Please model this.
Amino acid sequence: MNLLAAISRNSLLLGIFATATGVLIATTWIQTRDDIARSIRAAEARQLLEIFPEGSHDNDMVEDHFSLPASTPLLGLRDTRRGFIARNQGEVVGVILPATAQDGYSGDIDLLVGINRAGTLAGVRVVSHRETPGLGDAIDLKKSDWILGFDRASLEAPVKTRWLVKKDGGEFDQFTGATVTPRAVVTAVRKALEYHQSNRTALFGPDDDVQGTGAVDPPRGAEDIES
Model:
């Protein structure tokens, strides 16, 4: 009887320990997930003004946003993310699209891609990545100015077939010892431009609507987010 009681007591203790461990792991995962989401949002807010600086617009881009779900074509999003609008006197002068390069060397690379009304890039910034320090992390503006090479580029300059790293016959530099990372970013930025091209009217309104309030309908696959 004593042996059975000891076994029962130990089984109960193990069960309690397993349950507590499971709860702790689940709680940690939820808190970490939320912390990561908040960090991405904070990074986005800082980088919006790097892409469309003060003076280029007169609205609050953080509040002027729309939703792009994971199913949005070409953008590679894993989860619903926000796109942002830059306006000047009511006219949409630019948009900032979220994009994810899912084929980075060490995993996803989350980007913000700013596009002017004319279809040229206002700027690209990396929001989050896990690329190799000293190699692939050169996509980060804090590490190098490589990302600035996208400024003013479009699907016409260079032409779409030249949207490759130089090793693949394209226009964009790769890194010494690291080609996968810049290749993934170049492809993701090109696809964001293609998304813009397919949804131009929804994003900017008709070309002759110079006093319009912007996208009269949300972009394809998008829904407005309550502010």
Residues 44-204 form one domain. The two ends are 65 Å apart (CA to CA).
